[in-house]
């Protein structure tokens, strides 16, 4: 009788313990196709604006089923282009005044948290530019494509360049700059197309 009671007690302990073990989720990694993905930028100043592109070097998106759980992407800062094809502007953007691409050839973003739905998500993560990392959040959408790939889009990623030691003609740092000032914030639009 004692043996039967001990066995029942052990069984109860096993059942209760297993109920509190956290489930293990399977993570599926999708690789970003750089040829189908894009990053565009726009920078504004008092007298106008400039815009262009930056090539993606690599990236991944992590999913539990169809729920986005993480990811990252790497931008090739030496590939920065001006839409007006100004070689002078492109070289200046690569210089120490801006992105210092000789020393810092890439910029990266790593996802830390995702909230909301596929149609209206908020992505929070760490953006690293010129070796300096700061947290950033932005709205994004996720769409599953017929071929099994997924498209993640963030149309408005606002970046304060002064947080990354990019101070050239910043009115907040050089208030006497007058009408030669360049806005502290620039904007990125990111589209990642990824497939398992």
From TrEMBL:
Superkingdom field: Bacteria
Presence of the UniProt keyword Signal in the record: yes
Domain Lipid/polyisoprenoid-binding YceI-like: from-to ranges: 29-195
This protein's UniProt keywords: Signal
Pfam families cross-referenced by the UniProt entry: YceI (PF04264)
Provenance organism: Pedobacter gandavensis
Listed name of the protein: YceI family protein
Signal peptide: 1-21
Keyword Signal recorded: yes
């Amino acid at each position: 009788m004692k043996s039967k009671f001990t066995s029942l007690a052990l069984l109860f302990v096993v059942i209760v313990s297993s109920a509190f073990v956290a489930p293990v989720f399977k993570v599926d990694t999708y690789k970003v196709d750089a040829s189908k993905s894009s990053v565009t930028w726009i920078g504004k100043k008092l007298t106008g604006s400039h815009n262009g592109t930056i090539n993606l070097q690599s990236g991944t998106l992590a999913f539990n089923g169809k729920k986005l759980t993480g990811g990252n992407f790497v931008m090739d800062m030496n590939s920065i282009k001006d839409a007006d094809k100004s070689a002078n502007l492109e070289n200046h953007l690569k210089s120490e005044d801006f992105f210092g691409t000789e020393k810092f050839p890439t910029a990266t973003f790593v996802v830390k948290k995702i909230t909301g739905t596929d149609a209206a998500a908020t992505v929070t993560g760490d953006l690293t530019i010129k070796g300096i990392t700061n947290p950033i959040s932005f709205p994004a959408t996720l769409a599953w494509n017929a071929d099994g790939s997924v498209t993640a889009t963030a149309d408005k990623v606002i970046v304060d360049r002064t947080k990354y030691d990019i101070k050239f003609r910043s009115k907040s740092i050089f208030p006497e700059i007058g009408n030669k000032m360049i806005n502290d914030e620039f904007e990125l639009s990111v589209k990642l197309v990824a497939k398992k």
